[in-house]
Amino acid sequence: MQPFRTLEAPACALARANVDTDQLIPARFMKRSRAQGYGPVLLHDLRFGPNGEARPDSPLDRPDRPMPGVIVARRNFGCGSSREAAVYALLDYGIRCAVAPSFGDIFASNAVKNGLLPAQVSEAEAEALLASDWVLDGRPVVVDLAAQTLTAGNRVVTFAIDPVWKTQLLNGWDEIDLTLAQADAIARFTAADALARPWAAPADAGGGTA
Amino acid sequence: MGQAPRTIIDKLWDAHAVTTREDGQTLLWIDRHYLHEGSFHAFDQVDRRRARVARPDLTFAIADHYVPTRGRAGGIANLEIARMLAQLEGNTLRHGIRLVGLDDPRQGIVHVALPELGLTLPGLTIVCGDSHTSTHGAFGAYAFGIGASEVAHVLMTQTLWQKRPARLQVRVDGVLPPGVCAKDIALTLIARIGADGARGHAVEYAGSTIRGLSMDGRMTLCNLSIESGGRLGLVAPDATTFAWLAGRSSAPRGDVFDRAVEDWLSLASDADAAFDRDVVLDAADIVPTVTWGVSPEHAAPIDAVVPDPAAIADPARAAVVADALAYMDLRPGQRLRGIRVDRVFIGSCTNSRIEDLRAAAAVLAGRRAVVPGLVSPGSSAVKRQAEEEGLDRIFVDAGLEWADSGCSMCVGMNGDLVPPGERCASTTNRNFKGRQGQGSRTHLMSPAMVAAAAVTGHLTDMRELLAGRH
Ligand code: SF4
Fold it and tell me: How far apart are CA A48 and CA B459, in angstroms?
């Protein structure tokens, strides 16, 4: 995984609460393989009308603005389904950091695993960023993960992030390697567990449920 | 020296902790891993590492999200959908994972069909790349939804790194008024605490009302845990659970079952165990509830009115409500009862089990629906049972379409869609914008309430239609 340390990029303002993963990527696009790229379908129905025409009020694709690397939204961003494709869509569009007062749990976990920073700010700070000329004019904001700050002009906002996620993002750790290094502990656990919970294995394992 | 009192959540956690790192992350052992068509991203990750699936014997796949619900016997006409199913078949075959495929008599929605097989048991950790995996908590399992990278991690290691969640107990005591069901409890709770009200928490549902729920009701309630942001939701196992499980093909048998029940009985929160938060509801206050907006937290009793953004002091919240009303094409102050619907849907992992179909049929019997509608049983087994009971005749005689099982119009991936601009009374779990199809408008409610809306063509208090029937 690509580590996340600092980011300097324009932000886009999405002044909506409960931006669920069905909005981030509508279900009809989920048959795509990742190789096709998910960027074009990010927030598709907010960006495009029923016939594929660009919506005048779209928060993205503004010809007068540079491409954003940060997205700012209201509370409960990424709520809903566990579809990791919502994170792929943000990343493939070029967004590496989402800023909101709260995030859907599964979305935030998916984000970190893919190197996308979920930066939690207070409701008041989210509102201030959403209304800030600096953000709305598309000028670059600076995100510093180690310092947990986001700077937009002379406004410096501190964000919260789970310390474990912070370390993971900073290091770009591969969790699978960490886990494989625990092979002995896992083997000890399963040996003891087979005695403690003889009922836990499926009764017809290898048989009927095929 | 006895142990400190623990909640059921702690007991399940402790029993699965392989090791805990200094930073507090715990490696949890996973007892069951369920897969569906959406698993292809995870298999791609496994293949990129040229890795093997660690425990194919604990991994179970089922086709549900993309399966056709109509004309299934004639093969799959849509090539993209056929490719999604072939992909799942290929991935599971290559890794030696058992698949309940389209034509299998046990096929159904993962959260309906796999419990029916007895795979879901009390005391297990269960994960699936689907947020409604919380459903399996109804059995006293520690069950939660995960993303594709985590699915890949479980495939390769049968474990998952997790942070111990905060614990929330929701207590519901008393007797539910007639016609009020688990869906109403859940919607009432979500409206009360918000769509992110349980974020970061594992939820235990407790109290006499919960004890009185059947397994179908408990599954509906736990299923909707994610809609208040909960990591998972569960109910301590009891005699209702054990009776439901006995004799199912993958459940333990004979002495092993007796031993299991003994162990499962200890899966209850100790009397003096503390939760990080508590929420209390009185069953007697709960009434048939419907959603009016675009988040499950936008729910209100059927005799309420649509909220007025002008009356909401917080400008951000007022903007959310105004946006929801614009999308839903509703007026502030409009009575919920009387909102016209264009179609109905009965199905999804939330409300497609036999009791759900019985409740809907009880309202529909001898009546005609005035709008079109689709009924998709949650599994092929539910479908067979419903047909044995003659419920299919009631739906068909009422003018509704009786289909095969799958996710269907809950998410529309298989092409069962609500057309743009149409309003659907639905037993599903998400009224998000475009969830049932681009531009679709969804009102969530219980199966009996959907049946009542079908009969009258508008949102209706189903208690009026049941009056004098029993
Ligand atoms: S029925 Fe709907 S919510 Fe349930 S698993 Fe299928 S798509 Fe997800």
Answer: 31
